[in-house]
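In the design runs reported in the main text, the only information available to the sequence generator was the tokenized backbone. The following block is the verbatim input for one such run; it is reproduced so that readers can re-run the procedure and compare outputs position by position.
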């Protein structure tokens, strides 16, 4: 028998025990009151989040990958975070990946039985060739999803780094992880509906994991996404604005610099600020591990 009574996320919330009797405004006010507790729960685990970011960045800097694995909402949130990395930070689609119990169909339609099969996770990870150098983040609001347990167990057998993200004080996956991130969000407004507070907490943590990692890898300058992939009209315009902001130049100069840099906002900024050639800028960035601020410092040293 599954002991749901031991799971924080499955307990009944006394604050919303009569939510079905309220008018609509009172109903959403109660839900909003519960939602406001989520950032505080995340704040309590910031040290663990920071440690996870450092671990992930170190592994990715050496050419390894970040893999998210989960079932249901947790799996979809991992996939959401993964698929946003290429357009936002210009990464390869292979660098950050998301796996969900039940595969592609489960993204669009619940495949509830798939989460009960730990062997399915092993197969999914074998299919993508999980390696010792990779980082696996297991996501499960309850902390006990068999699919996620199976994935983390397999990763540990390989010697891969493991991170657990759960929202229940009693978490099996936390025991399988090198780093456990456990924002305890408490009982949901609707009992057991972990797509609500727990899902929100998971999204906030995943935002930090990927964003913090990309900052560490030099894909952010100031607070500008200088490795943005110019794959549509909106992103092309965003790249122009990034160059204009960072280099304090006109739109026309930004367009010219981006053309010279083959669409790379980071290289265009370097060209615009230093007057270097595209080849010189690429060499500076390569020498600086892709970090624009270090490349600018290096250029200044060479010029002095």
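Verbatim output:
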């Amino acid at each position: 028998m599954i002991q749901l009574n031991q799971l924080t996320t499955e307990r009944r919330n006394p604050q919303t025990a009569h939510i079905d009797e309220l008018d609509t405004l009172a109903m959403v006010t109660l839900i909003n009151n519960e939602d406001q507790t989520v950032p505080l729960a995340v704040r309590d685990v910031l040290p663990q989040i920071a440690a996870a970011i450092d671990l992930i960045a170190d592994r990715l800097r050496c050419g390894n990958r970040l893999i998210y694995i989960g079932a249901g909402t947790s799996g979809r949130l991992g996939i959401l975070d993964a698929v946003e990395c290429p357009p936002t930070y210009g990464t390869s689609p292979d660098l950050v990946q998301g796996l969900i119990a039940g595969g592609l169909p489960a993204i669009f339609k619940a495949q509830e039985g798939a989460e009960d099969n730990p062997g399915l996770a092993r197969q999914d990870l074998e299919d993508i060739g999980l390696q010792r150098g990779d980082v696996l983040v297991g996501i499960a609001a309850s902390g006990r999803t068999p699919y996620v347990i199976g994935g983390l167990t397999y990763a540990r057998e390989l010697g891969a780094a493991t991170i657990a993200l759960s929202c229940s004080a009693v978490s099996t996956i936390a025991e399988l992880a090198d780093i456990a991130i456990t924002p305890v969000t408490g009982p949901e407004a609707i009992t057991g509906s972990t797509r609500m507070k727990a899902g929100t907490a998971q999204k906030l943590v995943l935002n930090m994991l990927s964003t913090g990692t990309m900052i560490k890898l030099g894909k952010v300058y100031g607070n500008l996404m200088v490795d943005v992939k110019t794959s549509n009209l909106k992103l092309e315009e965003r790249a122009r604005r990034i160059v204009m902001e960072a280099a304090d130049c006109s739109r026309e100069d930004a367009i010219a610099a981006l053309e010279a840099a083959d669409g790379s906002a980071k290289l265009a900024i370097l060209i615009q600020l230093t007057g270097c050639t595209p080849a010189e800028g690429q060499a500076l960035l390569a020498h600086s591990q892709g970090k624009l601020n270090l490349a600018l410092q290096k250029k200044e040293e060479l010029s002095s």
